[in-house]
Amino acid sequence: VAAVSEPPASSSGLVSVLVDSRCITACVDVVSSLRHRHGVTAHVCSLDGCDFVVSDRMAVERQSQSELAGAQNRKRLVERVTSLQGLFDRVCLIIEKERTKPGEVSRPFQRTRYYDSTLASLVRAGIRLLESAGPDESAALLAELARLEQRKGQAISVPLEVKGLRQQALVFYRTLPCVSYVNALNMAQSFRSVSHLVNSPVEALQKGACLSQARAEEIYRSLRYACDITLMNTSTARKNSL
Amino acid sequence: MEIKPHVLVNAVPPYGHVIANEKWRDSALVQSLKGTGNVKTIFEEELGMVDFHLSNKSCILYVSETDIVAGNNYKRKLVRFRNANSSLQGIVVAEKTRLSEQYFPAMQKFVVIELGLTLLPVASQLEASQLLTQMVHMEGKDNPFRKKSVSRLLDPVVMSLVQQIPGVGKVKAVALLQHYSSVIQLCNAETCELETIVGQATAQSIHNFFQKPFF
């Protein structure tokens, strides 16, 4: 662990950010900046199709400006953003400027009508947008967001390593609708057994998993849902969300 | 000039229109909205600190290059806006130019992270007009990023939940769900009942999975 020279501003000290293992190669500079410059605990794990999770309810996706400007990436972006909205109350998009290789002249970004309409749609859908000039700035923004969420009492405060029975339970919890990785971690910590969770009322689910009432209701419903096995000829059950 | 703290809350521009603060009348932005954007502008003197009203309860607060460089005035304006209304979505359109870009990270932190408003940088009034045009024209269209609330079938969810129990594969999951249709029923089933369906070892495994405390 790197020594943090300046004392953390908030009372509870370090903040944690989860980083998706699939984006670690692309995000390596962001992660090292998070750890060494911003004193953030960056934990790498397999997330639910988003790059970063900064609190119990906020996911952050990093997108290059040119990707956002190109129509060929639209379908993937729509899929990711809508699936994140199903799992998180707050979704942020960091729009990062293109990196220029040493010796390369940076080309000015050509703003297109398509780019503007994408921005307009994202804003209207309630996605928070942030602009970044590069990995360092993205890391600074992630640290800011994590601290903001901490001030609002939403920081990731659960142990990030789970073992044994909790590990089995975690896999089960992640299969529930509307449950993000962080929610599942909270569940594994808050309930003393799987049965305890299954038999809990909505309010207890909401509190124990750190999620909204609507999501807690959906979980409650799915645990009591009477499955009609005759309808199940193919079991290609995809994780679904609110 | 005194900045009025109130804004016109009930102003809803018709489709294809924006309501603009009177001060924008001869601007390049409004010229371009009319010219290339095909957006009609209605001028209004009583908009207070808001620059443009869009339909769907959102409005634009414009921050020019000069405002950004000068500093505190625009901050006061935004804080007053945020404190004055809750019903309007405030979208801050700010001129991020070669001159103002050094202030941009601090501004973004203030506007987005501290105030919770939306911030969209543009390079000029012309770019702002293009962005506004897209915002106006998208009103009538379907937004792909807006999650449609489709009620999904929970049957596949229950099926895959049961298969997460150690020792339970597809065949045993089907057998179990023929007896216990929901997860909660399965969870609260007696081990001896489970044994008759999936055998002793799996029954014990299911019982342990649900009932064994973590600590």
TrEMBL record, chain B:
Taxonomy, superkingdom: Eukaryota
The organism of origin for this protein: Dallia pectoralis
Protein name, entry field: Uncharacterized protein
